Amino acid sequence: MSEIQQFYGERWTKQTKTLLNKLGWCQVGSSNFDIPCINKSAHGSKEDTERKNDHGIDLLYKYYDPFLGDNLNIIVESKKRNWAGVTKSNIESFLKQVLQTMECADISEKIQQLGVTGVRNGLLMIWCDETEQYNYEKVKEYLSDISVSGKRSPKTIYVATNNEILRWVSLVDYKERIEGRSESFEFFYPSSIYGKKRSIANQKSYINLIQLFSSYIFAKSTKIEHHSRGTNLININHVFYFAEPTKEELNIMYKLVSEYFQFESADELHIHFYGEQVAYREAINEFIRTKRDYIQSNSSTLKMEYSYMNEFKTIPEDYFGEE
Q1: Where are the domains of the chain?
Q2: CB 121 within 8 A of CB 74
């Protein structure tokens, strides 16, 4: 790797770290450290039957997942490429790299000394710096045609490229705005079934991987309203909406909110749409009007508001962070 490649690679790792920290994740250890390869023969290449180098770890995070009812330890690998470097073969190579690192980290004494037991989740962050050439549909095509299998216990690797990364930047931006005018803010985890377990509704200061890759992200906040007779504590439910806002999709979201999550049990419901959504403004306005009329006809005092999140074209400069 050239000095320039190393510089930009470390710079992107700092941006990744800043973004995940802003989403509430807890980092373990330092950035950019190595662990010994424990499976040298299995992790060899075509040129070398046995691996000679250690495994590099860009970032290691942990959090308790309310949906799964378990502690998750996550290896994060960050890659920065031009569009010509975002190919099926390169993505497959990146995934194999992450998987092999996870296999050794899962039983690494060095990782265990950091208070981490078991590493079965990974996050591959690929940023294409040629944003005008980046093609999300092509990335999805590549991913659908890639299959990577490991030698040990099952592992899960999430892949985020510009599309997901910029959504998360938008989420952070709007979250920080809400926090600036609120008494409290937490992400909301509705009761749901994952595997054979049913989780209970929960609130956390951080967001998990499952919600990060979802069309809707839920949160709760409180604010204080002052009036002539004192103050009121206002409870607000939030939906960060990343799906295409068609009439059908909006109604699906509202059904989840009102029936499954009992999300109307607050003073206000705020829906935050991703981007300007110019092509869907009429559908959104009609949806909001219809639901407000329905709420009023049922003698509910729920106040329903909506807004539009900024849609970023690149990552803000202040995400370069500090070690």
Answers
A1: 3-160, 167-309
A2: yes
